[in-house]
Amino acid sequence: MSLNVVKFPVFPHLKKIIFPPRWLILFFLFLILNPVSSYAQEDLSSSWFNYHRVNMLVFLIFFFAVIVIFIERAKVGKSLFIRRIAGLDAIEEAVGRATEMGKPVLYISGIEDVDNIQTVASMIILGNVAKMVAGYETPLYVPVCMPFVVPIAEERVKEGYAAAGKPEAYNRDNVRYISSEQFAYAAGVNGIMMREKPAANLMFGSFYAESLLMAETGLATGAIQVAGTANIHQLPFFIVACDYTIIGEELFATSAYLSKEPKLLGSLKGSDLAKAIIMIILAVGALLDTLGITHFASWFYIE
Amino acid sequence: MGTGEILWNGLALFLTLSIFSILYKDNPFYKIAEHLVVGVSAGYFAIILYYNSFIPKVWVPVVHESKFLYILPTILGVLMWTRFSRKWSWVSRYPIAAYMGIGMGVAIPVTMQAYILVPLYATMQPIGFTSMALFNNLLVAAGVLCALVYFFFSKEHTGAFGGVAKVGIWTLMVGFGAGFGLTVMGRVSLLIERFTFMRDYLQKLFGF
C-alpha cells in the first residue's frame, strides 16, 4: 500500500507528520549517517548532527507532535476546555474602573523584542485590551521599548479598535516608542504614569529590573495594576506591587483564552499533556534513582 | 579634584538627586533627568548600532569581503522603513515575520534545554526520609510536581486536584519570597553605592 493513499480525514496535517515526504526522510537519514558524524565526534562544528543531543531531538519531535495533534483538534471544532484565570477578570475590572474615572489605560508590553514569546503573548492580549477600551471609549497609551514591537503594537491596537466598530477612535500617537535602553524606558514610563495618571496599568510581557520601578510608581499614583510575566525573577515584585499578577505560563494561557485562536488553544492543551508526561517522568526517575537505577535519568542528561 | 571632575561628578550628583526627587512628586528636575536619559539613550543606541551592527555585519562583509549574501538581511532591514509610508507599510510585515521566525527557531531548542531537560534531570534525585539530603530532594520533587499541577489549565482547581495546586502555589510563593529578599538586598547595595558616591563627592568638594 502506498503511503500516499492512507486516509486521515480528521487530522489532514497529521498525515504529513506521521508519513513525512520521502525527501524529508532522506534528509534526516543524511544528517544522521553523514560521514563526518560519529559518536566520538570531538569537533562538532564539522558535523551537521550532534549525537550527544539525540534526546533533545526526540523531546522536540514528541512535543511538536503533541501540540500539532491538539491544534488539529481545535481546528476541526473539538471543544477544548480551559479553566478561567482569575487575572482575566482583573483586566476587565481595571478597564472598567478607568472608564468610570474617565482616565486612560496604560499598557506596557515589557522590554524584550518580538522574537520573545512573552512579547508575542503580550501583543495578543493588547489586541483584546484595545477592543475592550474602544468599546468603552477609554484612551489607551502603549509606550514601547523595542522598535520592532512598535508596528506590531500599532497593528494590534488598530485591529482592536476596528473589531469594536470604532476604527476612527484609533490614535496612532498613543503607541509611542520611548527608548531601547532599559532604565531610560522605565524613566519614560514612570513619567507617563506621574503626568497622565492612568487609572489602570496593565503590564504583560518580559520584564527585568525595571519591573519594580514601574509597578511601584503605578502603585504610588493609585492605579489598579494587573501584571503578568514568565520571568520568574520579576514575579515577586509584581506580586507585592500589583493588584493582580498572572504567573508564568498563565500569561500564555491568558492570550490563548482571550484570542480563542485554535493554534493557541491547541498548543496550550498540548503543553498540558506534555506537563503530565514530564511529571510522570520526574516521579519515575526519582523513584528509580532511589532504587539505584540511574540509567533512566541519564536519558535526560544534556551535555 | 580637578575642574572637570568637579563638573562631571557634580552633574552626576544633580541627576541622581533629580531622579530621587520623584519620591516626593513629579517636578521639573525629574522631567529634566527623565528627558535627558531618554534622549541620550536614543542617540547612544543609534551610534552603538552603527558601529556594532552596520559596520561589522553589513559594510565590512559586503564592501571589503565581497560576501553579497549579507545584502539579503540588509534589504529586509531597509524594508522596515516602509512603515513611514501609509501605502507601503504592509511591506514591513515581511522583515518582522522573518525576524520573529528566526528568533523563535533559535529559542525553541535553547528553551527546551534550559527550562525543561536540565531542570528535569537535576530534579531526578534519590528521595527518602533517612537523611536530610534525601528529604531535601523529596521536598524539591514534591514541590515541582505540585507547582506543575498549578499550571494545569485543562482542569478546574477543585477537590484533591485543587488541594495539590494550592500546595504548588504556596511552593511558588516561598520561592518568590526568597527571590524578593535576594533582589532587594542587591538594590539596597546599589542605593548605598549612590549615597557613598554623593558623600565622597561632597567630602572632596568641601574638604570635610
Number of helical runs of chain B?
6
Q: What is the CATH third-level topology name of the largest domain in chain A? A: Rossmann fold
What's the structural domain tally of chain A?
Answer: 2
Could you give the order of strands across the largest sheet of chain A?
3-2-1-4-5-6
Q: Topology as H/E string of chain A? A: HHHHEHEHEHEHEHEHHH
**Counted beta strands of chain A:** 6
Described by the principal axes of the CA atoms, the overall outline of chain A is globular
The chain-level mean pLDDT of chain B equals: 92
Q: Which tags fit this structure?
A:
heterodimer, A: 303 residues, alpha/beta, Rossmann fold, 2 domains, globular, B: mainly alpha, 6 helices
Structure description:
The complex is a heterodimer of chains A (303) and B (208). In chain A, helix 8 (210-220) links the parallel strand 4 and strand 5. Chain A is of the alpha/beta class. Residues 1-10 and 35-41 of chain A have low confidence and may be disordered. Chain A is globular and about 60 Å long. Chain A folds into 2 domains: 3-79 and 264-298, no CATH class; 86-259, Rossmann fold. In chain A, strands 3-2-1-4-5-6 form a 6-stranded parallel sheet, sandwiched between helices. Chain A is 55% helix and 10% strand. Chain B has a domain at 126-208. Chain B is 78% helix and 0% strand. The longest helix of chain B is centred in the last third of the chain and has 48 residues, at 159-206. The mean pLDDT of chain B is 92. Chains A and B meet through helix 3, helix 6, helix 7, helix 9 and helix 11 of A and helix 2, helix 4, helix 5 and helix 6 of B.
